[in-house]
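Notebook entry, structure prediction.
Reason for the run: the old model in the group folder had no record of what sequence produced it. Starting over properly, with the input documented here first.
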Amino acid sequence: MLTDKPRRGFWCECWTQELPEKEPPALRASFDAYSAPQADRWVAIALRTISPAFDPEASDDAWDWLYQGRIATRRALLRGQFCTVSVTHASTRITWTIRPVIFLTLAHRQGTELPACTQDFKPHEPHASVSSPG
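New structure, fully documented this time:
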């Protein structure tokens, strides 16, 4: 989303880690949300999508968060607090993180005239290969 001012929002990530914790967690997905409902909905959609593949305990944990924990998560986000949601299935821990951020405005090139200095740029010509004496 392009705006002319910094905008408050939430940076959401999904991490997985194989247990026991011999390797560092791996980032699987990220999402920029512009409201607390949008942020917790991202986690909720992911959990609803993958929970049928979970073992019974992980499935119970996922649905407990969907029915009970999601309310607490939303309240914490509205207070500007960092939140995590974790579920462990078999030997894999899946963790969603949601943190409040300020999104800075980024320039984009569509419909914008580039600065004059860009006209001064000339691609380098390939150099002739020089062999060293053997």
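Summary: The helical segments are 36-50, 56-78.
The old model has been moved to the deprecated folder.
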